[in-house]
Design brief:
The protein has a single domain, classed as Rossmann fold (3-Layer(aba) Sandwich), CATH 3.40.50. The protein is 39% helix and 25% strand. The chain is built from nine helices and ten strands. A six-stranded mixed sheet has the order 6-7-8-3-9-10, sandwiched between helices. α3 packs parallel to α5 and α5 packs parallel to α6. It starts with a strand and ends with a helix. It binds adenosine-5'-triphosphate (ATP) and magnesium ion (MG). Magnesium ion (MG) binds next to α1. Keywords: ATP-binding, Hydrolase, Nucleotide-binding, Transport.
């Protein structure tokens, strides 16, 4: 389980996460919605141990991200893909995907490369194993980013607006892969502005507003007039998204 309990995070005087509670069970697909600045990326970075908590606790399959001795194990279990393509530019696609399995999981190069090629095939990029990130389109880079996260066999795949820098065609390429992963039981925490897509693939939707989880509901209830839509902020957010 991924357990987030009473999490607080501030930057200086600015409170960004103000007591967030959220539990993700294996097999669930949970989307995090919320306006810009509501704290979504900060929450993902806290789960990944990239930000130090000011209060509360996050544990990934029992490993506490705030304990230096447990952070490594926690991180291995939460594979993360960010909005901006953060592939290593000086390494090939294959190098990017295999480096962590080889260095962190101590897998043999041959084994890591075999798995990397299988992952690349599953996202339609078999031919690009030897390319450098700079030679790929944005959509291809994000697909490699997803392979790189999956190569660590994480328990949870965290995705922070992985399509927001892509044009509609590339977005569709990446969303198709995420849909396939969701359908095959990959546990995902999905930060997105793609409301309709979130509705299609999520078991649950949570809405973050000014650092607080305003709503945490099964997907259909979230969109229901007496469910999430009963919250003025959610209704307002959704109507704005539909206009955009
Ligand atoms: N390192 C930092 N130092 C200071 N303030 C920060 C830092 N990181 C984030 N913030 C602030 O925290 C707030 C939440 O930021 P965050 O990136 O988590 O929002 P978000 O919900 O992901 O927004 P978006 O939808 O635009 O990506 C913002 O006000 C932001 O300016
Ligand atoms: Mg963000």
């Amino acid at each position: 389980m991924l357990e987030i309990a009473s999490v607080k995070k501030s930057f200086g005087n600015v409170v960004v996460l103000d007591g967030v509670d959220l539990t993700i069970k294996p097999g669930e697909v949970v989307s995090i919605l919320g306006s810009s600045g509501s704290g979504k990326s900060t929450l993902i970075r806290c789960i990944n141990g990239l930000e130090k908590l000011n209060g509360g606790r996050i544990s990934v399959d029992g490993f506490d991200v705030s304990k230096p001795k447990e952070l490594g194990e926690a991180r291995k279990r939460s594979g993360t893909v960010f909005q901006l393509f953060n592939l290593y530019p000086h390494m090939t696609v294959l190098g990017n995907i295999t480096i962590a399995p080889i260095e962190v999981l101590k897998r043999s190069r041959a084994e890591a490369e075999k798995e990397a090629r299988e992952l690349l095939a599953s996202v339609g990029l078999s031919e690009r194993a030897d390319a450098y990130p700079g030679q790929l389109s944005g959509g291809q880079r994000q697909r490699v980013g997803i392979c790189r996260a999956l190569a660590m066999k994480p328990s949870y795949l965290l995705l922070d607006e992985v399509t927001s820098a892509l044009d509609p065609e590339m977005t569709a390429e990446v969303l198709a892969i995420l849909e396939k992963l969701a359908a095959t039981g990959t546990t995902m925490v999905f930060v997105t502005h793609e409301v309709e897509f979130a509705r299609r693939i999520s078991d649950r939707i949570v809405f973050l507003e000014k650092g607080k989880l305003l709503v945490d509901l099964p997907t259909e209830e979230f969109f229901h007039a007496e469910g999430g839509m009963a919250q003025p902020r959610v209704a307002q957010f959704l109507s704005k998204m539909r206009k955009d």
